[in-house]
């Protein structure tokens, strides 16, 4: 049996030559030796780049379409003439259908959350309270990190529960807004709690809540209406407050009048 001796002269000479090559020459040498692998990598990179660009374009295109449809739906939702109740109801139903179409066609887009919120509002207008509750509840779960938006949703959720004869759940939703440090609608929630107490003929609690609106949120648009309700529900307290303010103003005037003569004498000197 014969033995074949391998000729390693070629291989060793190539290795020796490679040792004296520059980095650029080594790279070209590697490319030459692995041409198929290199071209395959280039092709794969191009495919990935094209895919990313295409997905970005589709995402942008979908967002633009979603915002456009949402704008149309909002226009229909707001088009409710006071002298044509039937047309107003038809527009609300049409808007609800359009909001649902947006959620089905463009889920995950920024406009999807807004469309869900407006869908809940339109369902409230249609007195479909349980459906509205379902929409608001899913929004709270999905957008839990957006505390400002969730505050608005929970307020509407509380109102939906209240209209659906679930007072306990409504109070929990309102309390969640008040416990949210980022919520911007606490003034409206406190005002709603005052209205609920007033509807229950709990005058003391209603007056207390209205006062909370006035004291804690003096710049709120609900503060003036809260002050009016306090005057109606507790006129004696409103009169006492007015008397106190008048007295304070009188004390200030008296102090000013006592100071001015002294100042005059100094001026004469």
List keywords for this structure.
12 helices, 269 residues, mainly alpha, Serine Threonine Protein Phosphatase 5, Tetratricopeptide repeat
CA-based shape: elongated
CATH class of one domain: Mainly Alpha
| Secondary-structure arrangement, i.e. CATH architecture of one domain | Alpha Horseshoe
Q: Largest sheet at a glance?
A: none
CATH topology title of one domain: Serine Threonine Protein Phosphatase 5, Tetratricopeptide repeat
% residues in beta strands: under 5%
| Helix-residue proportion | over 70%
- Our count of helices gives 12
- Mean of residue pLDDT values: 78
Structural class: mainly alpha
Model regions low in confidence, pLDDT < 50 over at least 5 residues: 264-269
Intertermini distance: 140 Å
- The CATH superfamily of one domain bears the name Tetratricopeptide repeat domain
Radius of gyration using CA atoms only: 36 Å
Number of E-type strands: 0
The SSE order reads HHHHHHHHHHHH
């Amino acid at each position: 049996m014969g033995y074949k001796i391998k000729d390693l002269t070629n291989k060793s000479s190539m290795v020796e030559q490679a040792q004296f090559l520059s980095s650029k020459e080594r790279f070209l040498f590697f490319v030459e030796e692995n041409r198929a692998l290199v071209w395959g990598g280039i092709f794969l990179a191009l495919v990935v780049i094209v895919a990313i660009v295409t997905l970005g374009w589709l995402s942008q295109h979908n967002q633009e379409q979603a915002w456009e449809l949402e704008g149309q739906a909002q226009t229909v939702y707001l088009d409710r003439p006071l002298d044509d109740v039937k047309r107003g109801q038809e527009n609300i139903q049409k808007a609800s259908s359009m909001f649902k179409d947006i959620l089905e066609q463009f889920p995950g887009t920024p406009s999807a959350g807004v469309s869900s919120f407006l869908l809940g509002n339109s369902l409230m207008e249609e007195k479909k309270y349980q459906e509205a509750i379902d929409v608001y509840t899913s929004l709270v779960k999905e957008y839990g990190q957006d505390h400002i938006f969730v505050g608005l949703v929970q307020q509407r959720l509380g109102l939906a529960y209240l209209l659906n004869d679930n007072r306990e759940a409504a109070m929990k939703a309102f309390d969640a807004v008040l416990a949210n440090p980022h919520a911007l609608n606490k003034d409206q929630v406190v005002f709603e709690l005052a209205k609920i107490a007033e509807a229950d003929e709990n005058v003391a609690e209603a007056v207390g809540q209205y006062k909370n609106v006035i004291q804690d949120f003096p710049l709120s648009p609900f503060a003036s209406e809260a002050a009016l309700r306090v005057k109606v529900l507790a006129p004696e307290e409103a009169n006492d407050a007015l008397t106190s303010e008048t007295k304070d103003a009188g004390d200030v005037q008296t102090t000013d009048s006592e100071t001015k003569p002294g100042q005059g004498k100094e001026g004469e000197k």
